[in-house]
Design brief:
single chain, 309 residues, alpha/beta, Udp-n-acetylmuramoylalanyl-d-glutamate--2,6- Diaminopimelate Ligase, Chain: A, domain 1, UDP N-Acetylglucosamine Acyltransferase, domain 1, eight-stranded parallel β-sheet, 14% helix, 31% strand, globular
Length: 309
């Protein structure tokens, strides 16, 4: 998330009422999660395990819960609860805007696009030309759709991220201020749910096709010309490169990369990065020919055991 203007470190610290290390006028231009930060961004960290990763990231402002040595060229915001204060900044720069109309007055709809009855378009939604948005679709604030996009009934674009911090009295939600961006020539089936980014974008790449009943988590990037079948569940912060095929009921954990040309057979449980142009099967998943040989060997076990004297 980039701010509308450049802010000083002092002014950001005043918003969240915290101590800071760095010059008063140190420039702050945005806030992001660690996998998408750029210079000028704030990143938050609240666990010693991840201190080094945050301090060594591209972010130049680190919101942290311990006073540590500040890396050269960076600044620190010292908070007793970085998670809480990151939420404060999201509320300040991307506050919730209630809607009182099905289609917001500031939504932009391109020439030739058809919007069927009972569609909801939130604030600042942009839809390109020659799209077809079927009945009962919900497209949340700030989402962007390109040209020739089809979205089938019951789909929700721009729901909040499933991202919580466990507290003694329950769970605190990390607020979402990002977007969903759908590129040209994408088709999304019925009853899919595509969550927006926490601070960045969830992206569906050009020419990709999604079946019905698919869940895609926050900040996930789907590449170009991907094919995703029904009942697939993809966690947040996944990178799916171009020309990937994902068959039904596959589950993909967060923070991994599905390489170009990968094929994931039905019901794969994907727990790590894949190799380009390789087909996988099973849970735990593996290269399909190897897994089928293992399965054939397992089927022979009763016979082998029976013959052991």
């Amino acid at each position: 998330m980039k701010f509308p203007d450049t802010y000083s470190l002092k002014s950001i610290a005043s918003i969240i009422d915290c101590k800071y290390i760095g010059s008063d006028d140190f420039p702050v231009t945005g806030m992001n999660e660690i996998h998408v930060v750029t210079p000028g961004d704030i990143v938050f960290v609240d666990h010693p395990k991840y201190y080094d990763k945050a301090l060594e990231s591209a972010a130049t402002i680190v919101l942290i819960n311990k006073e540590v040595e500040c890396p050269e060229g960076k600044a620190l915001l010292i908070s007793d609860d970085p998670f809480r204060d990151f939420n404060k900044l999201t509320k300040h720069f991307k506050p919730f805007q209630a809607s009182n109309k099905s289609i917001a007055e500031n939504a932009k709809i391109g020439e030739g696009t058809v919007i069927q009855p009972n569609v909801f378009l939130g604030n600042n939604v942009i839809i390109g030309e020659n799209c077809l948005i079927h009945a009962n679709v919900s497209i949340g604030d700030n989402c962007v759709l390109g040209d020739n996009v089809i979205v089938h009934s019951g789909t929700v674009l721009g729901g909040d991220a499933f991202y919580y911090k466990k507290r003694a009295d329950g769970f605190d939600k990390l607020l979402s201020g990002g977007r969903v961006v759908v590129e040209n020539n994408v088709e999304i089936g019925a009853n899919c749910t595509i969550d927006r980014g926490v601070t960045g974008d969830t992206i569906l790449g050009e020419g990709s096709k999604l079946d019905n009943l698919i869940q895609i988590g926050h900040d996930t990037v789907v590449g170009k010309k991907c094919l995703i079948a029904s009942q697939v569940g993809i966690a947040g912060c996944v990178v799916i490169e171009d020309d990937v095929t994902i068959w039904g009921q596959v589950g993909i954990r967060s923070d991994i990369t599905i390489a170009t040309g990968t094929v994931l057979m039905a019901q794969c449980g994907v727990s790590k990065d894949t190799t380009p142009h390789t087909t996988y099967w099973g849970t735990p998943f593996g290269e399909v020919r190897t897994k089928l040989k293992e399965y054939a060997a397992i089927k022979r076990l009763p016979e082998i055991v029976k013959n052991i004297k």
